[in-house]
Amino acid sequence: MKLHFYGAAGIVTGSNYLLETSQNKVVVDCGLFQGTSRMEKKNLEPFPYQPKEIDFAFITHAHLDHIGRLPKLIGDGFNGRIFATRPTIDFARLMLEDSQRVFEKKSVRRRIVSQRNSQQIEKAMKMFQPVEYDQLVKVNQNISVCFREAGHVLGSAVIEMDIEDKKIVFSGDLGSTDTPILRDPAKIEEADYVVMESTYGDRFHESKEECKNIIENTTEETIARNGVLMIPSFSLERTQQLLYHFNELVENNRIPQVPIFVDSPLAIKLTEVYSRYSEYYDKEAKALIKSGDDIFKFPGLKLTLTTKESKAINDVPPPKIIIAGSGMSQGGRILHHEKRYLPDSRSTLLIVAYQTKGTLGRKILNGVEGVKIMREIVPIEARIKRIGGYSSHGDQKDLIWWLENIVQSSSPKKIKKVFVCHGEEESSSVLAQKIRGDFNLTAEIPQLGEIVEL
Ligand SMILES: [Zn+2]
């Protein structure tokens, strides 16, 4: 059996693993490379395998760096079933359609590729096969899979795959145990091989309670200065976590009531999907709903779907709070607000998401004096604040806790290898060392394109 690492190996984005046996070829995730334009160009390259030879695709969750190249995979000949949870399938349509719109804006050549993609999105939606958590799915006589809670975004899954007498566990992206709304990552038992993420393998987050306190303090300080609080946010999960906390802060009068804009059509639509799947929420969120609270609705909240509504935010005098995409300030409506308010010393930019190398968000976080937004140099006078704990990725402690469950439930020597993926060089190597030291396991960091015999 061979495991090929064609994405999220030595880097964070482009998740795409190919598992090849004498009988079958399957892929786990098929995501976009994101970040620098050099990285994005890789999305147009042909796959390093024949998509028409792939029997099945398994999708851990709906972030674009895990699903974004599905239309291309289908366009290039893949015609098998795609397994994912129901929320992932619903999110996938919205995420893929949005990504296509962004893509179309960039150039004519891309528009041609994009038109083809549009048909493939429709095709993809028909190829999806929904799976329930914790149910063993017999895919064919050689392969069974079980999707387990990953606690990263709604519908996210760890995939346990039994294939030709070996059990391989793909972590997908893992959340932490205190993420609002979501259940904790499931405790996985036993594995021969583990392919795990390491986005924050070298870091420790603030707890979610501390995050809420930082939100509270930052909001109060910005309001006191009569400024604008800008929060660049990912549409999926981060925005819903923020709304969940703002709902609590506003309804318990912990912050003054000011207009809070969600200025992202995608985030608004994804939040509607969240509302449909409350059976997947954690105990606390379910209890709030049972008590009659709508966790995504509170006084002052304004959802701006249209461009006209978005532009009208300018006419609302500060103080105000604006949550908008994109999460790394690489495009989207947040740029308009950043262009306007980054030069304003009363305002605050609160970074709540992981900022990939090369992105505008990363530059701002690194403390540059000015940035170029829509061909204009914008000086940065606003305060820049950051919360690490809002990440939907677990930190080192969470990742080790997750792996420890597998180690403790496995007989000695059962786990043959841990592949540390989905991380930048530093975080992967720190996590790999920690795994070797704590568990005496073999931990490797595969490079992009590497093929390993299992
Ligand atoms: Zn993710």
- Count, helices: 14
Determine the fraction of residues in helical runs and give it as a percent range: 25-40%
- Our estimate of the beta-strand percent is 15-25%
Largest sheet: 7 strands, mixed
* Averaged pLDDT: 94
Bound molecules: zinc ion
CA-based shape: globular
Rg value: 22 Å
Distance N terminus to C terminus?
5 Å
Structural class: alpha/beta
Count of DSSP E strands?
22
**Model regions low in confidence, pLDDT < 50 over at least 5 residues:** none
Largest sheet strand order: 6-5-4-3-2-1-22
Structure report:
The chain has 454 residues and is of the alpha/beta class. The protein has helices spanning 37-41, 64-67, 70-75, 86-106, 108-127, 208-224, 238-251, 265-276, 283-290, 307-311, 334-341, 360-365, 396-409, 425-439; strands at 2-5, 17-20, 25-28, 56-58, 81-85, 128-131, 136-138, 143-149, 157-163, 166-170, 193-197, 228-232, 260-263, 301-303, 320-324, 348-351, 370-373, 376-379, 383-386, 417-421, 443-444, 451-453. It has a seven-stranded mixed sheet. It has a seven-stranded mixed sheet with strand order 7-8-9-10-11-20-21, covered by helices on one side. A hairpin with a 2-residue loop joins strand 9 (157-163) and strand 10 (166-170). The termini are close together.
Summarize the structure.
This protein has 14 helices and 22 strands.
Secondary-structure map:
Layout: E1 2-5, E2 17-20, E3 25-28, H1 37-41, E4 56-58, H2 64-67, H3 70-75, E5 81-85, H4 86-106, H5 108-127, E6 128-131, E7 136-138, E8 143-149, E9 157-163, E10 166-170, E11 193-197, H6 208-224, E12 228-232, H7 238-251, E13 260-263, H8 265-276, H9 283-290, E14 301-303, H10 307-311, E15 320-324, H11 334-341, E16 348-351, H12 360-365, E17 370-373, E18 376-379, E19 383-386, H13 396-409, E20 417-421, H14 425-439, E21 443-444, E22 451-453
Bound molecules: zinc ion.
